[in-house]
Amino acid sequence: QSMILPDNGKELEKAGLLNKTKIAEGGKKLRKNWSPSWVVLVGNSLVFFKDPKSQTPSSWKPGNSRPESSVDLRGAKLHWTNELSSKKNVFKLRTVTGNEFLLQSETDSLIREWYTTIQNVIDRLDRE
Ligand code: I3P
What we know:
Number of helices: 2
Helix content: 10-25%
Bound molecules: D-MYO-inositol-1,4,5-triphosphate
Strand content: 35-45%
Shape: globular
Number of strands: 8
Order of helices and strands: EEEEHEEEEH
């Protein structure tokens, strides 16, 4: 489950399990491949980890595990979408480099928290 983690020097803001699929790379459309991902919001980045079942609290810490990928949130855009998936509770994250991800949870409150928390980071970076 998602939880707020203490700031241990790298602004670790949030971590939790979401369904994820990448739908574009550099503006080029990709085939969808939904899978559960352990998502960590730290500093200016959203970091994705594979195999969340094997993650333990100590292995969430950036630098202490191997991320599958990470996303720079500076200049990124978030949009709720009903058109890009048959699933409910889906938002799209688009990076300045034209990478696009869909993130989803069956739990309404949980996905709303993620949307708000990521948008707050994007807004903070916009003001810098
Ligand atoms: C896709 C798979 C995805 C679905 C996608 C399908 O089929 O069922 O879950 O996306 O729909 O094409 P396949 O496994 O054969 O690639 P959603 O679950 O988000 O709806 P789409 O093509 O309409 O995006």
